[in-house]
Write a structure and sequence with these properties.
The chain is mainly α and about 200 residues long. The protein has one domain. Helices cover about 85% and strands about 0% of the residues. The chain contains 11 helices and no strands. The two termini are about 35 Å apart.
Length: about 200
């Protein structure tokens, strides 16, 4: 397996369209297919710019621009993820709607915090370290495009099934949202532990 393919898979696993569709259930139900595609394309474009920026600049964007350590970002990102996971436990899929707020610019609200999160930003930095600039950016664009494509297909399937089994769909997303909390919470703890380890290595080196 080439580094290009590994980079695509790394980011695609973290983007996880099967998980993201749970986050976007309120938007999936409100928008038709054409509107949903248009919003996703805009969100994907915003995400690609952000991911490519982190891939090119790497850790320097934290140390030189934001004047913080990457470990601090990992710790804060882990705490944010942990809060999202807890919200999912108690509120189900509606948690992400509350966290996202009533944004007039839905594409931006989807890009942040659904697609652009601590995990995907960290992956972008790793991808940038593994490959040259062109391959890094190309792998990021491909991964985001694949994620959007799967989301569009899932939206279509949702609309078809919902017409006949609306109650079943509602139960599925509620259950999936709460199960998602286990995954999100686990990733959050892992990020916090990684941040602590990185900080300790920097402090004692």
């Amino acid at each position: 397996m080439t580094e290009f393919t590994r980079s695509i898979l790394l980011l695609l696993v973290l983007l996880n369209p099967f998980l993201v569709i749970v986050y976007l259930i309120d938007i999936v139900q409100k928008l038709d297919n054409k509107q949903f595609r248009r919003v996703l394309i805009r969100a994907g474009f915003i995400s690609c710019i952000a991911f490519c920026s982190f891939a090119v600049l790497g850790d320097r964007i934290f140390s030189d621009v934001f004047q913080v350590r990457f470990a601090s970002f990992q710790l804060f990102g882990g705490i944010v993820f942990l809060l999202i996971g807890l919200q999912f436990v108690f509120r189900g899929p509606t948690a992400i709607e509350i966290l996202r707020g009533e944004s007039k610019h839905i594409a931006g609200a989807i890009a942040m915090p659904v697609l652009i999160g601590p995990g995907t930003i960290s992956a972008s930095v790793v991808i940038g370290k593994r490959n040259d600039i062109l391959i890094s950016c190309a792998s990021i664009v491909v991964a985001v495009m694949l994620c959007i494509l799967v989301l569009v297909v899932l939206k279509f399937l949702h609309d078809v099934i919902r017409q006949k089994r609306e109650e079943l769909i509602e139960r599925y997303f509620d259950l999936a949202g709460r199960i998602t909390a286990l995954f999100v919470g686990s990733v959050a703890i892992e990020m916090i532990m990684a941040g602590v380890k990185t900080w300790l290595n920097l402090h004692w080196s």
